[in-house]
């Protein structure tokens, strides 16, 4: 009996293997059905060959994605119609929108609305004014204009008259192509952009407007048209005016076909055309990567090239070959589909037969195996029950031990936090009393006491945050939600950041999808969350950056999303896995913080039954998204409105909320005790104010709170000494020193570096960067003051050295260092204009490419003299050489050196050398 059952099982197994193999073969050939997508394409027009080529490329690429439903709407050059069609797409329901805008400004708002609804948007060919889109596909029209400009200059031998036929006014391709073309031609002095003709991108507009312009400018040598249709129209006009043999024409598009730009170049109608790919295939490929959540680039710039007689035949053969290959592919796809249909019908019959046989075989096998498994399972259950009892006892012991240890840690944590609060309270109490109700204090003592109070409050703030962390950890921070308008709530928090953002030139944008979003939420909990996210964004966003806060209700998912997006440096790969860890400050972070902000924000968001996530791209910025539920449990709702906590909670040590701590705009503090100007670059407001307090009585003073602002002020004001901190946001102090020493406007300025890093190798690094002095914190204010005075004294000695280097026999200086090169360039400009009696300081500054004030400060800093005196010295030095030539009269020497009259020349010469020009000539003639 046992032998029969064994033989039966073997036969069943073999039968299953055979049928399973057949099914596997069939199943392998049928891949899982991909999800279906609907893509809407809003085209500005489909009435020209270039747009039709774009649509053909899309359809060619879509042939590889049968699961995509593609819808196109033609706006026919009507911006209002295009906006209406995009709204129709939204009502019909699409998964992704592709837009080729008719005009930039009118289409931007509706595109932003689509993007804010969570629908990906791919911008094709023509850009919009906003950055709220998913990806851009198209050529670089400014680069097209630049390439055209360089080609035209080469074609004309860098000399000639050019006429430009522009596209429709207000469209981004016309604006960008003209900008690139005009800027490039400006670099060729021999080429003149004689005239321009506007069009609507179509040939009839050129036929109507160009003849009058050509009659007014018969000297035109070449016409640059913004597309090949306009270029063909220009050729017809030239043919009509019998100018086609002389005027050469260059177009843009380079389409294949009988009427395309490639054929026009081959027929010698156009001299050249610039390839401007329609980008249809790339738009569909980018859209599919977005829909399938695959990696993609936000900016997809298509390349361009010049097509002329040297390569037109190759380009034509390549395009014809591609067309032939595409036709072959389409034919093969039709044959493949026929084979799939035949195979599917045969496969259905096979599946039915195989399923019936396998079902019978499996039923018999399962009955036999169930009998054997039943006995084995009973034996295993007994063993597992014993193991489970043993493991349960061990887990209970571990849990009791962990509970005891956790309670001990939390008690220590709580007691330690309270111990910190006690001395802080004892510090703040007397200080507040002395500042408010105590006797009148000197200004210096009041400043020091204010400094003590602010830093004690900061310590108290950190202790409060630690207490919040403890409450979250033990689950003793309840949520008391009340119903309110989330949009107004976030708007009030953003108002706190308006002033510090404006001071740094940062744009704050608020984009709620709806004006009112009612929601149950705890204002104290979410106030800390959003305040921390905005504070973090402001801390890491550079000057003239942008912070965008968006609010969107998603009823399908039952939540509300609040996103905070910045344009900062982003989060590095090594920091992303740890960004929400307590006390983590980042591997490369130069910001000074406690490392608790994001961790606390995450804990509070989860406490509110929400989620906090982020995305970041290094060098482009980060986006933090808070997702809150639309419905909260009844236990978390409260009818009593809570009191909103003060926003001083913010975990931003660089963002202070009082005027005494807030980083002010850079300002110049005047002082009558010295004309020397000192620039202080320090990001800590208290240290900055402390340095200003110590230096202000002795010098003129300018302050900056970051490296970029410091560099700008240094170039504008040309200070005599710069005091700079090493640890600065965005641009470090070492980078500031390197840029100062590499710029001839500021290369002469002594720099004192301040830092808390006192390792010898770090000090060597600072000196190697070009610093004149390296002071470690804490430093002696008196030593700093004397160091500034010593550097100023050494600078005066260096000025004397440069003045001696300007010898009486020559007015040039060897350009060995940056300052010497500046003097050499300045001397060369003055010598080249010696004959001009009207040569002014403004003329010299313009030739140097700087302002009059910058030139004066630089010359004063290097030579200790004014620019006018320097020019006069060069003229008088040159006069001594010319007076040795007996063939020149004294009057001729005077006029040759730019003096207004011989008498003024004689007076100036005698004042400089104590002898008149005639006496000087007589002395040297006698000596000869």
UniProtKB/TrEMBL annotation:
Positions of modified residues (4-aspartylphosphate): 725
All copies of the HTH araC/xylS-type domain together span 824-923
Give every Histidine kinase domain span: 415-632
Give the Gene Ontology MF terms in alphabetical order: DNA-binding transcription factor activity; phosphorelay sensor kinase activity; sequence-specific DNA binding
The domain of life is: Bacteria
- Any transmembrane segments, and where? 349-371
The parts of the chain that form a coiled coil are 374-405
Specify the Response regulatory domain's residue ranges: 677-792
Q: What is its EC number?
A: 2.7.13.3
- Coiled coil found in the keyword field: yes
Q: Which InterPro entries match?
A: CheY-like_superfamily, HATPase_C_sf, HATPase_dom, His_kinase_dom, HisK_dim/P_dom, HisK_dim/P_sf, Homeodomain-like_sf, HTH_AraC
CDD domains given in the database record? HATPase_EvgS-ArcB-TorS-like (cd16922), HisKA (cd00082), PBP1_sensor_kinase-like (cd06308), REC_OmpR (cd17574)
Protein known as: histidine kinase
Protein source organism:
Hymenobacter mucosus
């Amino acid at each position: 009996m046992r032998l029969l059952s064994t033989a039966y099982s073997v036969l069943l197994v073999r039968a299953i293997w055979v049928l399973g193999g057949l099914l596997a073969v069939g199943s392998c050939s049928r891949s899982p059905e991909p999800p279906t997508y609907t893509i809407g394409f809003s085209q500005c027009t489909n009435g020209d060959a270039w747009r039709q080529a774009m649509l053909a490329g899309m359809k060619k690429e879509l042939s590889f994605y049968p699961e995509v439903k593609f819808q196109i709407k033609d706006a026919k050059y009507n911006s209002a119609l295009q906006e209406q069609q995009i709204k129709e797409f939204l009502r019909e329901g699409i998964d992704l929108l592709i837009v080729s805008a008719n005009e930039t400004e009118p289409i931007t708002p509706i595109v932003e609305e689509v993007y804010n609804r969570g629908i990906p948007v791919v911008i094709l060919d023509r850009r919009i004014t906003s950055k709220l889109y998913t990806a851009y596909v198209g050529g670089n029209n400014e680069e097209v204009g630049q390439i055209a400009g360089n080609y035209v200059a080469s074609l004309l031998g860098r000399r000639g008259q050019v006429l430009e036929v522009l596209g429709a006014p207000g469209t981004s391709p016309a604006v960008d192509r003209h900008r690139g073309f005009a800027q490039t031609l400006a670099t060729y002095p021999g080429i003149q952009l004689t005239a321009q003709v506007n069009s609507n991108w179509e040939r009839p507009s050129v036929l109507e407007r160009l003849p009058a312009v050509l009659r007014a400018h018969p000297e035109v040598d070449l016409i640059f048209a913004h597309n090949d249709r306009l270029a063909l129209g220009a050729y017809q006009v030239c043919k009509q005016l019998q100018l086609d043999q002389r005027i050469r024409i260059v177009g843009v598009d380079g389409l294949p076909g009988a009427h395309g730009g490639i054929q026009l170049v081959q027929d010698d109608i156009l001299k050249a055309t610039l390839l401007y790919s329609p980008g249809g295939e790339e738009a569909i490929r980018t859209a599919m990567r977005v829909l399938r959540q695959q990696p993609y680039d936000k900016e997809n710039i298509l390349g361009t090239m010049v097509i002329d007689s040297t390569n037109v035949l190759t380009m034509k053969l390549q395009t014809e070959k591609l067309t032939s290959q595409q036709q072959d592919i389409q034919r093969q796809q039709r044959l493949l589909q026929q084979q799939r249909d035949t195979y599917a019908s045969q496969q259905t019959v096979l599946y039915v037969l195989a399923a019936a046989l396998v079902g019978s075989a499996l039923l018999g096998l399962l009955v036999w195996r169930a009998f054997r498994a039943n006995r084995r399972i009973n034996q295993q259950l007994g063993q597992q029950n014993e193991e489970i009892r043993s493991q349960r006892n061990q887990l209970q012991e571990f849990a009791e031990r962990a509970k005891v240890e956790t309670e001990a840690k939390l008690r220590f944590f709580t007691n330690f936090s309270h111990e910190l609060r006690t001395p802080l309270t004892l510090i703040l109490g007397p200080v507040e009393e002395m500042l408010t109700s105590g006797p009148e204090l000197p200004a210096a003592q009041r400043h020091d006491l204010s400094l003590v109070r602010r830093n004690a409050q900061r310590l108290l703030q950190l202790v409060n945050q630690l207490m919040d962390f403890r409450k979250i950890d033990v689950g003793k921070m309840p949520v008391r939600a009340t119903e309110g308008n989330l949009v107004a709530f976030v708007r009030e928090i953003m108002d706190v950041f308006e002033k510090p953002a404006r001071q740094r030139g940062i744009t704050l944008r608020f984009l709620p999808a709806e004006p009112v979003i009612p929601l149950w939420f705890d204002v104290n909990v979410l106030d800390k969350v959003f305040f921390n996210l905005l504070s973090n964004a402001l801390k890491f966003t550079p000057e003239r950056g942008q912070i965008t806060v968006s609010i969107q209700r998603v009823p399908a998912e039952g939540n509300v999303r609040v996103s905070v997006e910045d344009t900062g440096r982003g989060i590095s790969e090594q920091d992303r896995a740890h960004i929400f860890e307590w006390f983590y400050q980042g591997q490369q972070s130069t910001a000074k913080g406690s490392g608790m902000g994001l961790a606390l924000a995450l804990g509070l968001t989860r406490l509110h039954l929400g989620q906090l996530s982020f995305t970041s791209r290094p060098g482009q910025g980060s986006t933090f998204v808070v997702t809150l539920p639309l419905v909260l449990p009844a236990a978390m709702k409260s009818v009593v409105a809570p009191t909103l906590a003060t926003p001083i909670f913010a975990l931003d040590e660089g963002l202070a909320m009082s005027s005494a701590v807030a980083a002010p705009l850079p300002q110049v503090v005047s002082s009558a005790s010295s004309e020397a100007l000192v620039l202080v670059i320090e990001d800590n407001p208290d240290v900055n104010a402390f340095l200003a307090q110590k230096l202000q009585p002795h010098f003129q003073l300018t302050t900056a709170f970051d490296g970029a602002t410091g560099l700008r002020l240094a170039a504008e004001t040309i200070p005599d000494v710069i005091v700079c901190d090493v640890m600065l946001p965005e641009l470090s102090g070492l980078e500031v020193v390197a840029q100062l020493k590499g710029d001839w406007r500021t290369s002469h300025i002594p720099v004192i570096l301040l830092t808390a890093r006192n390792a010898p190798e770090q000090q060597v690094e600072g000196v190697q960067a070009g610093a004149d002095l390296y002071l470690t914190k804490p430093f002696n204010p008196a030593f700093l003051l004397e160091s500034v005075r010593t550097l100023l004294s050494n600078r005066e000695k260096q000025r004397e050295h440069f003045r001696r280097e300007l010898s009486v026999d020559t007015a040039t200086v060897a350009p060995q260092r940056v300052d010497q090169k500046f003097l050499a360039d300045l001397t060369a400009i003055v010598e080249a204009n010696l004959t001009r009696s009207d040569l002014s300081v403004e003329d010299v500054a313009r030739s140097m490419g700087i302002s009059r004030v910058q030139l004066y400060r630089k010359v004063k800093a290097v030579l200790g003299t004014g620019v006018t005196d320097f020019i006069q010295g060069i003229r008088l030095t040159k006069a001594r050489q010319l007076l040795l030539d007996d063939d020149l009269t004294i009057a001729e020497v005077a006029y040759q050196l730019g003096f207004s009259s011989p008498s003024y020349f004689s007076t100036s010469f005698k004042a400089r050398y104590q002898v008149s020009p005639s006496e000087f000539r007589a002395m040297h003639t006698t000596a000869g």
